[in-house]
Amino acid sequence: MSDRAILRLTGTDAMSFLQGLVTSNVNKLAGGLVYTALLTPQGKYLADFFLVPDGDAVLLDVAAPLAGDLLKRLNMYRLRADVQVAQTELQVRRGTGAAPEGAHADPRHPDMGWRLYGAEGGDDGSDWDAIRVAHCIPETGIELGPDTYILEAGFERLGGVDFRKGCYVGQEVTARMKHKTELRKGFRTVAVEGAAPAGTEITADGKPVGTLFTQAGGRGIAYLRLDRAKGEMLAGEARVALQP
C-alpha cells in the first residue's frame, strides 16, 4: 500500500506522549491496533491513523500525504519528552481472508479485515470501497478533511475516540459535542440510483442538504444535514435516499 506511511515512536515517554495527544486510549495497544485521530485545539480533524504495538516502540500507520505534516506536528508537541519520531521503510499489507501470522485486526469493523506490517505492501483485492460504504467508514482525503468533526464522522462507532481516557488535544470541543448538543450533521450510507462524481452536492426540494462521496453497488457515503435529509434527494442526475 504505497498510499500509507509508517512512523516509529520510541523513547520512555512515547506512550504517555501519545496518550495526551490522540483521541483514543493508547493503553489499549496491548490488545492490538488502536484507531485514533489528532485534532486541532478547536476539535477539528488533522489526521486519522492506526497505532501499532511494536515491542518497546509504537508504529503509526497514516495516509502518506499527511505523514510529513504529522511528523512536524508531533515533533512540535514533543518539547522535553523522551520521544523520538522517525519515518520508516515499513509497508502495509491488508486483506479480508485468513489473517497471516503477525497481522492485526482492523479495529474499525470486522469486515475491514487485517493489516500486516513488514517489508512488503499490497492487499488481496477486496472491494474496500464496497465494505466502507456498507458500514459508513469514512476515508482519509475522501470523506475526512480539515473541516471534519470526528463525531459527525462516526469515530465513536468506529472505536476512534474514548470519552474516559482523559485530556487530549481538542478534547473539550469533542466532549461538548458528545454531551451537550444533538448532532445535526454527519456521514450516512445512502441508496444511490444513477451516477454522480464524488463531491457532488446533494439537494432536496432545490435546497442543499449535503455531499455525496464514495459509491459502490448502488449505495454511497454522504455527508448530510440530518434535519433536511428526508424523502427523495438529488445528487446531480442521481437519485439519493437515506437508508433506514
Description:
The longest helix has 15 residues. Helices cover 16% and strands 36% of the residues. A six-stranded antiparallel β-barrel has the order 10-13-12-11-14-15. A five-stranded antiparallel β-sheet has the order 2-3-4-1-5, covered by helices on one side. Strand 3 and strand 4 form a beta hairpin. The protein starts with a strand and ends with a strand. It has four helices and 15 strands. The protein is of the alpha+beta class and 244 residues long. The chain has two domains: 177 residues, 2-Layer Sandwich (Gyrase A, domain 2); 58 residues, no CATH class.
> Which word captures the global form?
globular
Corresponding CATH architecture of the largest domain: 2-Layer Sandwich
Main beta sheet: strand number and arrangement? 6 strands, antiparallel, barrel
Q: What oligomeric assembly is this protein in?
A: single chain
Total count of helical runs of at least 4 residues: 4
CATH fold category name of the largest domain: Gyrase A, domain 2
Give the SSE string: EHEEEHEEEEEHHEEEEEE
**Structural Rg:** 19 Å
Mean of pLDDT: 95
Helix content: 10-25%
Q: End-to-end span in angstroms? A: 34 Å
Strand order in the largest sheet:
10-13-12-11-14-15
CATH class of the largest domain: Alpha Beta
**Quick one: how many beta strands?**
15
Number of domains: 2
CATH homology superfamily name of the largest domain: Probable tRNA modification gtpase trme, domain 1
Structural class: alpha+beta
Task: Tell me the β content.
Answer: 35-45%
Enumerate the spans where pLDDT stays under 50 for 5 or more consecutive residues. none
